[in-house]
Design goal:
single chain; mainly alpha; two-stranded antiparallel ribbon; 3 helices; 59% helix; flat; Spore coat protein; Spore_coat_CotF-like
């Protein structure tokens, strides 16, 4: 079995009170979840906007929401409240090799 499998990338966890009341981690996690939902919804709205002015407004709001979501993610990660799985280097290399050959199929800029 690969040594890297199931390895978490995570900072040391900032401790918060374990009480029935919501703590900082709970609040930030709740807001992060909401922002993720909102970016998904704005993405759908952008795909379906038939009016250019509405599209531009939605695009601005989407970017602001996405930036907020990223800042919340960074805060959660910094405090050790959010972890990700370490990438298996062999799988990354295999994917890289697989898609390297596709460059000739992409439109030229």
């Amino acid at each position: 079995m690969n040594q890297q499998q199931n390895q978490k990338v995570q900072n040391p966890e900032t401790q918060v009170p374990k009480t029935p009341q919501m703590n900082d981690k709970d609040f930030v996690n709740d807001i992060l979840t909401t922002e993720k939902y909102m970016t998904d919804s704005y993405s759908t709205a952008l795909n379906e906007a038939s009016n250019q002015a509405i599209y531009q407004d939605l695009s601005t709001i989407f970017q602001e929401t996405q930036d907020c979501q990223r800042n919340l993610y960074n805060l959660m990660f910094k405090n050790g409240w959010y972890s990700v799985e370490a990438a298996d280097q062999q799988k990354v290399q295999q994917a890289y090799q697989q898609f390297t050959g596709y460059t000739n199929q992409l439109p030229q800029h």
